[in-house]
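note to self: dont lose this again. the chain is below, predicted strucutre after it. 694 aa total, dont forget to put it in the shared folder this time
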Amino acid sequence: MPENPAGTNRLAGETSPYLLQHASNPVDWYPWGEDAFAEARATNRPILLSVGYSSCHWCHVMAHESFENAATAALMNRWFVNIKVDREERPDIDAIYMNAVQALTGRGGWPMTVFLTPDLRPFYAGTYFPPEDRHGLPGFPRVLEALHDVWGTEHDRILAQAEGITDHLQQAANRVAVESAAITEEVPIRAVESFRASFDAAWGGFGQAPKFPSPSNLEFLLAHHARAGWGAAPTPLEMVLLTLHHMACGGMYDQLGGGFARYSVDERWLVPHFEKMLYDNAQLARVYLHAYQMTGDLSLARVVRETLTYLEREMLDPEGGFYAAQDADSEGIEGKYFVWTPAEVAAELPEADAALFLDAFGVTEAGNFSDPHHPEFGSRNVLTRRRDRDDLAAAHGLTPAGLDAKLDELRAKMLAVRERRVRPGLDDKVLASWNGLALAAFAECGRVLGDTRLVGIAARNAAFVRERLWKDGRLLHTYKGGTAKVDGMLEDYAFYGLGLVKLYRATGDISHLEWARDLFIVMLERFADTERGGFFETAADAEHLLVRTRPLFDQATPGGNGAAAQLGIWLGRYFGNPEWEAVGAAIVASAGRFLTEMPSGFGSTLLAGEILLAPRQELIITGDPAARLPFERLASGTYRPWLVVAAGRGDEPLPLFEGRMPPPGEALAFVCEDMVCALPARDPDALRSQLRAR
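---
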């Protein structure tokens, strides 16, 4: 065992906050790597692979119950080679073995617990195991003992089972949809019908509890509504708006500090699992922005600003990168940082202000939340904001505008009070993929809201990622404390490329678009599946894993191929390269019947399909930056997710600008369809008329 600080294991030398959380466990943990594999081969012991992430509540529970328990750790150390993996640091490993968990158990989740042969083939799997038999689950020590016994007494059967599971995983990884064909109008119509069938007309969202925000699906519904019109009730826009309203008024939204928790445990968006993830907030900021563009509802814009303010305040590294996540727990209790009792509010505010705060945010003596692991903590309140605004104002003798101002004042006061509490843990690693989502959010929201500070944060993020994570023409996946490592995966290239496209639109700086092009070229050279089309999760020369997966399905973030399809379409149109656009179209076509049979897993691919089905439209604004600004501000109020927007001086090396140079000091706007343009608009009113005519 290598030298480590006293009382620590091999994880002490890692950078992942999740791995470091386990560095003082009595378990003899290895990080993923050849040292662990060699030990398993040399001793013929099976591998116990434990996968989780730093803000995962049940990961903390299992760690406390089992991995910190000396007796359980002794069993693990005696019978197994134990490997701990941060799923956010290694999504490629997580994807492979999560597929195994789902194949063996019919469900998945974290913590993920998989038992492997020394050559990394899975033979038994599960998620959370309690310390003793409970709720129909076997106790973890009993699982360890049983697997140790069968490893010794039924070794050949275990190896045969592992081989069968591995064959299944490899076949699943090579699966493609049948009847691949170019997308037709019927596909999104049937997808919308599927969403409508599962829509919760009372509380928004789709399906039953627990409820996840699923931003890719919301983006598809908005895009389809913008392109195809109203349709049957509830319309796509109505489904999205009701969902956004209830999420923002419920406990899943942080009513004091802004930003969204990971998901709601109930159908009413009332009680969340309190972890806050960069990817959720970055994606949801853009969903709310697009809904604002479609409706002009200022309450949606308020959520956008508050969410980005939260990310800037609590998740932005001084170097310019965004951190990954904040924990659900503080002081070992889930949600403790975020919940309140009436007495806690009354202790901080004057009587009338406290009464208003309690009424506005639903704080009662009965409460609406308790941590089952800590009954002594009692019942407390997740803040909500569901009282009718006019009724609440009248009840407290205020005008609606006066109510808004007073609540903003009280929220600021109580946020300052909350910040005196012990904060939840922070996962301060920077992931290229999730930073791509944040880059897109800050760039696009800054452009649409006319906030140059937000655009500046985006530009600084791009400079940081280029400096720290772009090495020798390759993107690295994770950065922390001056160290960048792990070969970039498809999601890193695709997400960051899409963010750079948004940054180009916000700044007119073609270098951002050119870097996105460079990322896409690397994808084509190192990630392309030349036999079936689309892209693998890992590069051809990356670490050889059990299976080379092809990420098709959306999860909490867009599927890698859905994001790659969007990037190929955009870059093909900006650079006049039909082959790149064809790559994106082929990905959409290859999804085939998946788009209609399971649309909830293909929102990002359906969004790419919407771009392909829409008219090919371009908006080209050329000239002096100051003269361009009124045209760009007008264009930012338009939600047309298929529209190619290019703004520059006119001499940039893009086909869009050829022959469109304005007179010195002036600006022109060209509204085009498939590069056939109307006469140039010389003032915003003319541009507005042309856009309405399209």
